[in-house]
Aspartate transaminase (EC)
Amino acid sequence: MTTASVDVDTARRDYAALVDRGLSLDITRGKPSPAQLDLANGLLTLPGDGTFKAEDGTDVRNYGGLKGLPELRRIFAGALQVPAGQLLAAGNSSLELMHDAVVQALLSKLPGAERRWADEPTLKFLAPVPGYDRHFALTERFGIELVPVPMTDQGPDMAVVERLVAEDSAVKGIWCVPKYSNPTGVTFSDDVVKRFATMTTAAPDFRIFWDNAYAVHHLTDAEPALADLLALATEAGNADRVFVFGSTSKITHAGAGVGFFGASEANLAWWVGNIGKRTIGPDKVNQLRHALFLEDEAGVRAHMRKHAEIIGPKFEAVDRILTEELGDSGLATWTKPTGGYFVSLTVPEGTAKEVVRLAKEAGVALTPAGATHPHGDDPADAVIRIAPTFPVLADVEEAVRALAVCVRLAAAERA
Ligand code: PMP
């Protein structure tokens, strides 16, 4: 990016005026707003007094049912692109399922593996960047080395991925958010998905962590199609390389939703065998309540349209204000996602941390610069993640205008 010259005195004056306003705003985390949570308040009175039987007669109040309720698995099979029989409904979080998957692979030999991951001398995961900080933190915690791979507007740079997985058997996995990626909003192209399904891996126990967290989270009617990784990999004889994750966290209630895990039959047998040591079964009352509330795939779609009505204007505001404030400046580029929860803002190299610091001093909390990269270190110090869903629209507008003031000052001071 070219750094256009910014008048430093003007930038300082604008910033001083901003600080004087004593703002207190937060656009750090991708949380649903209270208005979005309200959309699913019907859940709070479901399944209702006297309703505790699943469609197959299971008493949801009792133990058991490790795979989750079939009626709920059916509702999400299409969106998550996993046959209902291979999709498990679990607890309230998909992140914990990803954590479980890594821990179980460390402790129990995966299908196709020569040994447990814990017995490998070195473990590596590929980390498309910019990416999701909690993915990176999870693998970092277990000493798994993260190898950055650049994201393109089609998904991860597959030439780099193919080379790394083919030449190094220590590379055991890759983090992917294939639809409306966190934080770039990119949906992986058909070619990228196909290459994931068919590529040659040196590790026989390589796994793609396909975190389809934003599968149904459209902001517009232009809904990009995502190719079906599990089907393509199965067709190519690589069914076991795919772990699919998803959840209703940003569909119903973020803290009280349902997480899903989908995979090949061999992987499921491995999963259920291990998970059965950890739980006698998931919260089926919550699963029944979700099935009754959402009803079917069309019900999910209709519900997501209501979300889009609330958060769509916030995303539009981010784009409009960035365009007004920075559009001609040459100081920033940003993504214009048509779904998901984030906008990724790129500022001049070496200024992202300073922008975040200036914003903090002016009362605007941003996700720490670098959070989108392994170990919190963005070598170019240029990417800032904007999460506009939680604050009310007026606060989003104010925060983004303030952010632009900080971008201009950081660039001016550096010039
Ligand atoms: N994956 C991605 C890509 C996310 O952005 C988030 C939430 N920010 C999660 C997973 C967390 O999902 P859950 O609530 O199901 O644990």
Q: What stands out?
A: Residues 30, 93-95, 132, 177, 182, 211, 213, 247, 249, 254, 259 surround 4'-deoxy-4'-aminopyridoxal-5'-phosphate (CB under 6 Å).
